[in-house]
Please model this.
Amino acid sequence: MSIHLHEPGHEPPGEGIDILFVTGDAYADHPSNGVAVLSRLLDAHGYHIGIIDQPPHESRGSMAALGTPRLCAAVTAGLMDSMVANYTPLKRVREDESTGYPGVRRPDRATIAYTHAVRRDLKGVPVVIGGIEASLRRFAHYDYWQNTVRRSILIDSKADILVYGMGERQMLEMARRLKDGVPLSGIRGTCTKEKKPPEHCISLPPFDEVSSDKKAFMRSFLLQEGGMHPLRSPPLAESYGAWHVVQHPPSVPLCTAEMDALYELPFTRRVTQTPRGRTRAIEGIQFSIIAHRGCFGSCSFCSLAMHQGTVIQSRSQESILREARSFLSHPDFKGIIDDVGGPTANMFGMGCGGPVDAISVPSIIDGSPVTVHIPRRTCGRTCLNPVCPSLRSDHGPYREVLAALRSLPGVRHVFVHSGIRHDLALGDPAFLDDLCAHHVSGQLKIAPEHADPGVLAAMNKPPVGVYHAFRKAYEESSRRAGKKQFIVPYLMVAHPCSTPAAGRMLQRMLRDHDIPVEQVQVFTPTPMTLSTAMYHTGLDRHMRAVYVPYGYGEKKEQKRWALGARKIK
Ligand code: SF4
Model:
């Protein structure tokens, strides 16, 4: 293995490194950590990898601690946008940082800060930026913390290329091209700066327009949203005068064999005790299993479809069982599998039953051709709310894999902690019975989000009645299983369309149904979501004016109403 995590005071590796990762997270050798997944994959392809995590980027030379990489530096802010990591929804400085070393914070706009430091210390080394922050700020975007429209992060960071989405295919292709001295332009799942946009591309409204014209901003977002189909979307180009930010078509989703190979890489599932302490990043998820990727929920405030995509990429049951068996020899394993899921746990094995197209691509395992089937998605609608008749929404494969895991010798409990889509689960009582009997550790997290029909429509979430029906079915299933277990509702206030009347409706619903509320989230406009476009423009996707609670006081008040609902008479 040739993965070197930089530790202060240690010498660079004698054999040098090909690719340097710079990350805003503390490194954890775990499948939930993007840098761990990419570095293990590249290592499996024979590349020498260096990792500098949460560097003191202001110190000159800090980026050269592992020597000069032969191919490139790959920069990421980490698992979340640095502004989301550093500030609360009401823009207060966040006290602690879950994915970092104790007391160590990533800088604001970490991708830009780290890239500038790499340019300072590693002159001439190509810089790739990626991860959630870079991916979702790839075009001009509304920045809530500055309350302004910022340019593409590719322009502001002065990086050479940007990876959007999950980066396995892109990183392997870039490493190969850099090794062979081939230009990096045109790689699926990347954005580059070009003097001239490619032919047959869709031109987004230019930066000057989207930064001053709200309708142009919404129009641009809708074109970006429509530009995420791996086979049918042409390149998108956004003009900055002399330069154009060009998004090449999305990367092709991974097939089952590739997902299996990727998540069976030899992660140690351990964090390193360093002079800066230990990160808590994998506490509670150390023995969690990533069963699939992608989500077709299309919630308006979520950007997953613009990053991981809507195609569900599921692993095989055999591969998941092999991973679970590997836990048995792990010194920390106590017989409890923390989670089996993905962005939405019960979408495992699901997908569009409509027409699909096939494409052959080099596999991330060994470069041999694999065929990937991709839904055509010419339907022009979302898969849920209501559930599309063409959706394959059978929970059978998920129930089978959970049952097989439960029966593994040495496994005492298999929990599901990833979010569950309650409207999907409601359609399958047998799954709900399994879930309640075997896989809930005392409480289940469900996201009804709100009660007001107008707010729920703006969020593209099911009506509140679906939540009440689910809650009833869940309580009955739990009773049948002889279990006293609760639902923790995820609620969001101050989302576009949340008028004071809507806030009161949520309050009344919580009081009338005596629903215990632990936490209420204030909507945070993060880059590249429909809800953020609505927040910034005051328009919905049909260019109709919508109410947006901008005031700090009003947001706090809506939160207080929901939190205190059961106390009102
Ligand atoms: S046809 Fe239905 S299931 Fe398929 S992509 Fe469209 S909405 Fe989703």
